[in-house]
Amino acid sequence: MQFTNFPLAPPSASNFSQEYDVLFYTLTGLTVFFTLVVSVAVIFFAIRYRQGTKADRSRPMYENLFLELTWTIVPLVLGLVMFYFGTSLYVKMRTPPRNSTEIFVIGKQWMWHVQHGNGVRENNTLHVPVGQPVKLTMISQDVLHAFYIPAFRVQEHVVPGRYTQLWFTATQAGEYHLFCNMYCGTQHSEMGGKVVAMPPKEFAEWLANGGQSVAPMSMEQAGAKLFNKVGCNNCHGAEDTLRAPSLNGIFGKRRVFADGTSLIADEEYMRSSILRPYDHITAGYGQTMPVYEGQLTEEDVLNLVAYMKVMGTSSPNPPTSNINRHSGPSAVSGSNEATSLAANAAQWNTADPDATPTRRVGSPAVGAVAAQGRNR
Amino acid sequence: MAAIPNPMEHGHDHGHGHEPGLQHQYEDMAQQSETYIVGMWSFLVSEVMFFGALFLIYTLYRWNYQVDFYIAHEHLDVKLGAINTTVLLFSSFTMVMAVQSAQLKERIRVMGYLAATVLCACTFLVIKYFEYKSKFADHLYPGVSFADDAVKAFGPHALENGHVAVNMNHAQLFYGLYFGMTGLHAVHIIVGIGILLSLIRLWYNRAKTVIHDYVPTEMVGLYWHFVDLVWIFLFPLFYLMPIPR
Amino acid sequence: MSSTGKVTGELQHQPQTEEVNYLNNGHTIASWLLTGDHKRIAMLYLISTTFFFFLGSLAAGLVRFELTSPAGVVLESETYNKVFSSHGILMIFTFLVVAIPAIFGNFLIPLMIGARDLAFPRLNLASWYMFMTGGILILIGFIAGGVDTGWTFYTPYSSMYSNTQVSLVLVGVFIGGFSSITTGVNFVATIHKMRAPGMTWFRLPLFVWAMYATSLLLILGTPVVAITLLLVVFERLFKLPIFSPELGGDPVLFQHLFWFYSHPAVYIMILPAFGVISELIANFSRKRIFGYHFVAFSSIAIAGLGFLVWGHHMFVSSQSMYESVVFSLISFLVAVPSAIKIFNWTTTMYKGNVRLQSPMLFAIFFLLIFTVGGLTGLYLGCIGTDVHLTATYFVVAHFHYVMVGGTMLGFLGALHYWWPKMTGRLYSENIARATAYIVFVGFNLTFFPQFILGWMGMPRRYHYYYFAPEFQAYHIMSSLGASVLGLGFILPAFYLTMSLINGKKAGPNPWQAHGLEWETSSPPPTANFLETPIVMDEVYDFDPVSEHQQNMADLEKREASDNDGNMPIEDHD
Question: Residue C531 and residue B5: Cβ atoms within 8 Å?
């Protein structure tokens, strides 16, 4: 669009937008019209009747009831017409349909918590389906806020101590601004986010996937995918080959190296043999494996390691790995997530000067590794 | 030009050729008196709006929390309130008598009635002091710890079945409004006492502003009647609540 | 002047040498700080409100500077919030509400009605002291840390959450409010009872009608906000549970009480400017205001209806649908009297003898800008459209159009028109005219882009907008405009001050205007008039037909004196 730097209107993405825009542009037309009338008259009179011009000033007009009544009644009637249409739009905005999808919003300094009916939560983002009325029921935990979606033309205060509502039907998929529009303190301007309108099918999938675009994969599944993607499967097959040994069932077994030393294949070993394969070359093989250091994130490595632990097993339910990510549908069965994370964390706490800083946040061990990396 | 000579510009002093007690901006006493009356009524209208907002807030909250307000109000001393009402009504009477004596230019009587008005006002304040004191003793004043401290005051209603039967927030609201409104009223009484004392002093010193013109005294009377009228509304609203259905 | 049976522009029997006037009648500080003279009190207000205005403008400049970049420039958000709050508080409570009434109302009402002073001179002085006390307390509050609640002080943020100097500033606003109330009482009593003989209501200048309507609002509205703000202080200090839900109170109740005053307050700010514009257009079109009665009564109608529309600030506040509909309907009604005024003023210029001197330029620009400002109010009174626009930059643009483009232009017009009367000096007309153009251009550059910003959804009171970089272009335009506007506001400080030092002495009536204030010397003597006038005709008794004939005869002479940039030499008509 040629006006990308100077946009002149917000997106129109809800059932109200069209009627709203008609009202808005009608008011704009009236404003422009009356401003022109007054401006032209004032400037014209200022020039034509400027002191010293020859214009006719006989029979000056001091009052004229007809004129007064005209320019009282005409604006009044125009105003009442605008009032009528504005009120009817407003009444629609305040009357949510019975079949509206209900979503709940809690505002607090300085973020939005959104909760969908099936329990999916999101912060500072609101996913909604296109074409289906959505009703938001909102309350504040502290001070006044306001939930404002310019593209949908809707807004309502979010009040502590009572519920307020607003509703809309998104008509166009896309991402739109969400703003807090009632001053609420220091970070008022940063208390916003996005409204994501999705076609109904995608929305249903999103909702069913616990708020993810695709069903979250387990680490083993992610690792399997990556295993194929970066080409490990080209060399590491089900059986040992000339090029590479098989990795099936490697976890926990002793591995003998070309120089006679050996190690139990634990996560540490598996990680280093991905990133720096020549630290320990398996007996009977040479320097053929490419070095993956710098090409994989720690998250990738963890996923690969998780996959490698179950490679070759044909169990439909792969055993839960010790390292488990918090994800909706896949539950950590039997193990306390915190302790499993902590247990694995201990391994990563050994100072490794070559460890690449990780991007994963939240896990204390990983953060420690990252810190060590920065202190290198 | 058609004009009237301006006494100020011709160097006349205040009293020369004019009525004593006439301020320089007025043409004659009639204009001065009428202006004083318009001024005082305008001021009283603003006071009505001032108290009116508080009465509105009180009305809204009492409408919503009738039971809690009723229970909370039971701790107000109706007897003392009634005595105060009588005292103030009597003080309005003495004030009217003072104004009448001013109209009759009876200086001693004016001072006497004004003094009686001051006495009534002071009595009102003393009784108010005792009322407030007992409320403070029972911790019935708004503050951070109202909920804990004031529970004991609600006697048989408190701690029914382990729960307090009155909403402490609403009770605190009641006492907040009580102190706010009666306190604001008391401030007006204190200011009124100051004005009355100044007026007595003016009469005592035979000041021109009051000796020759009763209107200033009448204006003070207007103010005093307004203060009395506010109390006439406060008393039944706070002290004489009917039992809610 | 013909209002008293003469057509002369000069008062007889008055020597032009240094006569005793209100300015030189006593030189001690005490004679100024303990004065009862309404004209001196007006000058005291002029100095103090100008001071507060400049402080508020500095805050505005800082806000516009910050907004040039989506992630701010030099301020943290907490500071930014305090800066915009102080801009609003200073501009509204210490400038807009006060300036025209307290300066020009005080100075002119007794003169315009032919009185020696206001009804209650000592109360008038007390008003100024209350204003100064309040203003100084507010400034102390700002120096001690400021407030970050916005000038609207919404609860529960202001009463329970903000860790800023809310109580101190609110007490300052509370005390300053009494200044408004007492001024209103003074004006009502004066206008009712102290008009000169023959000055009936319908012979009054329209400025006096406007001030009367304003005074009704001051008396009825201010006490409500005073007690409301005091209750916020009590909620902060004593945890009085009035407005905070945690304590059982109602935050929306605060909004009702606050806007019950603050909507009439905007009419307090604009009605005096309307009065000024009536005077300017009549005197610089040299013609009676068209539809005098309609203009007079429209002021009263605005004052009355203005008390019934406060809920249009609360359409999305969770108030009931029915409340909103009623407030919207009455809001459309209250727009009509303002429209009537605009049409009447425009028609006044028809077949007049228009002089485009600087006060008239301000008046003309007022007509252009206020029309836009008033019409954009309709978007906000119409609930359907308000839902999207409320609390965005659209509202900011609307109220700056009516407050700056309206009240401020009225203030500047009044300042330029009555400066010779108040100070006895003439200023440079050329620079003044240039200033009017600079202000007009700068103003529109600053605030028109904000309509677009608001329509696109940019909320107000936002420090950052890095998540919406599409807004930046308009913010930059607006800030550029603000620089121009700032220049326009600073210039008068210079040339008006210079006029005090080396400006030509003004005679009693340098504009050949009509009105009792022009029938006494410039500056007036302390008692205003040597002789109390008796009024025999209405104030705007121009005769455009005969003036036109005279103009045709004097055509060359007029062109010569207009071209050299000075004000016309005083004419003895």
Answer: yes
CA quadruple C306, C307, C308, C310: dihedral sign = positive
Rounded Cα gap, residues C228 and C216, in angstroms = 19
Task: Tell me the per-residue pLDDT of C275-305, one tens digit each, with 9 for 90 and over.
Answer: 999 999 999 999 999 999 999 999 999 999 9
CA distances to C309, C357, C545, C550, C555 from A51, rounded to whole Å, are 42, 11, 12, 10, 9
- The complex's ipTM works out to 0.89
Show the tokens assigned to A175: 């991402």
- Here the CATH number for the domain that contains residue A251 is 1.10.760.10
| Residues B204, B211: Cα–Cα separation, whole Å | 10
d(CA B198, CA B204): 10
Average pLDDT, chain C: 92
Q: Nearest Cβ partner of B35 from C116, C189, C224?
A: C189
Question: Would an 8 Å CB–CB cutoff place C13 in contact with chain B?
Answer: no
What DSSP assignment string belongs to A287-336?
S-SPP-TTTS-HHHHHHHHHHHHHTT---SSPPPPSS----SSS---SS-
Smallest CA-to-CA distance from A68 within C114, B94, C292, B127 is with C292
In terms of Cα–Cα distance, which of C38, C183, C23, C181 is closest to C115? C38
Q: What is the DSSP string of C430-472?
A: HHHHHHHHHHHHHHHHHHHHHHHHHHHTPBSS-S--TT-GGGH
Q: Which residues of chain B lie closer than 8 angstroms to C12, CB-CB?
A: 1
Domain assignment of residue C188, given as a range: 2-563
Domain that holds residue A232: 219-336
Instruction: Provide the CB-side half-sphere exposure for C157 (13 A, CA).
Output: 23
Q: Is C452 in Cβ contact with A46 (below 8 Å)?
A: no
Total domain count, chain C: 1
Per-residue pLDDT, averaged over C87-105, amounts to 97
pTM value is 0.83
CA distance B32 to chain C (A): 8
Confidence tier at C200 by pLDDT (50, 70, 90)? very high
Domain boundaries defined on chain B? 46-140+173-239
Q: How many structural domains comprise chain A? A: 3
Q: What was the pLDDT predicted at C541?
A: 84
CB C565 within 8 A of CB C429: yes
> Which residues in chain C touch residue B174, judged by CB atoms under 8 angstroms apart?
none
Asked, for residue A191, whether it belongs to a domain, the answer is yes
Q: Which among A267, A277, A292, A274 has a CA at the least distance from the CA of A347?
A: A267
Q: Which tokens is A215 given?
A: 């069903």
Mean pLDDT in residue range C45-57 = 97
Distance from C-alpha of A323 to C-alpha of A340, rounded to nearest angstrom: 6
Rounded to an integer, what distance in angstroms lies between the CA atom of residue C190 and that of residue C194?
A: 5
CA atoms within 13 A on the CB side of C516: 36
Q: What is the domain-level CATH number for residue A120? A: 2.60.40.420
Establish if C65 touches chain A: CB-CB under 8 angstroms.
Answer: no
Residue A365 lies in a domain: no
Domain B46-140+173-239 is of which CATH architecture?
Up-down Bundle (1.20)
Q: C392 touching A, CB under 8 A?
A: yes
Chain B residue numbers touching C113 (CB-CB < 8 A): none
Nearest one of C154, C176, C171 to C233, comparing CA atoms: C171
A193-224 as b/e: b if 16+ CB within 10 A: bbbbbbeeebbeebbebbbbeeebbbbbbbbb
What average pLDDT does the segment A327-353 reach?
A: 38
3-state helix, strand, coil in chain B (%, to 5): 75, 0, 25
**Confidence grade of residue A128 (pLDDT, cut at 50, 70, 90):** very high
By Cβ distance, the residue of A27, A187, A189 closest to C379 is A27
Q: Which of residues 194-233 of A touch C (CB under 8 A)?
A: none
Q: Is C573 a member of any domain?
A: no
Is residue A371 pLDDT above 50, yes or no? no
